[in-house]
Amino acid sequence: MNWHILATPRSFCANKGAAHELLETHGCKLDLRAPKHPYCASDLAAMIGDYDGVILGLDDCNAKVIKQAANLKVISRYGVGVDKVALEAAKDKAIKVFNTPNTNTIAVAELCIALIFSLARSVPQISNAAKLGVWERGSGWELNGKCLGLIGLGAIGNAVAQRAQALGMNILAYDPFVVSADTNIQLVSLAEVCARADIISLHTSLNQSTRHIINASSLAQMKKGIYLINTARGELVDENALYDSLVNGHTAGAAMDVFNHEPPKDSPLLNLDNFIATPHMAATTVESVQRMSMAASQNLLDGLSNQENENRII
User: Fold this and answer.
1) Is the pLDDT at 262 greater than 80, yes or no?
2) Quick check: pTM over 0.70?
């Protein structure tokens, strides 16, 4: 059987190797069409009609796209989140949807720790100043003994907790779907995370209850001098409220890998000295790309051939 497959993730398209060979040896004709930025729904809808399967990055696969997908049988998400996929519309058309859990856990957790260090010692700011000839030492602060609050305690949240514990940090976590955790992690309410943590890091999925979970009200409940990190989903944070909190000094610093709109060209956050931005790179390492590529490809093949697969969402 020959299958016509669209692939959009940039790292998948750029790294032609074992995953591509796997698909091609199983009769898949790959159409690699990586955009500079994720496809909007109208662009994806205009091209999706003839494909049997798609490997999608952060492209907007809404109900309009699904409606135009005349031959589509499988959507294989290159990553974990499926908030950009219209699941009900896909289900109505019997389109199978898969994701790739745990393939990028280490990569995201390690970047989160790197951002914690960057905030603690103002690494980007001091480096930039040193290159301009400003040779002034920053005092910074130590992580040992500090309290890290996690919002979301899935695979990535747990991986961050494990690494933070090795640095001597105390861990609080809020996750309404988790009833027990490692003995060194204290499960508490969202309000308690806000009130007690020195650093808060977001690791929850995006849905109606978590959209803008960080807002003016929750920021006001946090300690003065709080540090915030988001490597999960941009829409978890009300960026206007965060900007105000960073400007007035209640939030001492923030680091974000994800934004409400990407790239965040007009975001006032980018003008602040106490804000660190990275370009949605948390999940991207050499190793994680290999794992995600193979998992997304195997998911696609299993979906096309009606094989059982634990990564199936619908």
Assistant:
1) yes
2) yes
Concerning whether 196 is annotated as a catalytic residue, the answer is no
* Residue from 233, 235, 239, 291 carrying the catalytic annotation: 233
Which residue pairs, CB below 8 angstroms and at least 24 apart, start in 90-98? Answer: 90/66, 90/314, 91/314, 93/66, 93/69, 95/66, 95/69, 95/314, 96/303, 96/312, 96/314, 97/312, 97/313, 97/314, 98/74, 98/296, 98/299, 98/300, 98/302, 98/303, 98/309, 98/311, 98/312, 98/313
Q: What is the pLDDT of residue 1?
A: 73
Average pLDDT of the segment spanning 91-119: 98
121 is catalytic: no
Domains of the chain: 3-101+285-304 (3.40.50.720), 105-277 (3.40.50.720)
pLDDT (0 to 100) of residue 139? 87
Give me the catalytic one of 110, 212, 262, 312.
262
280 is catalytic: yes
The average pLDDT across 30-53 equals 96
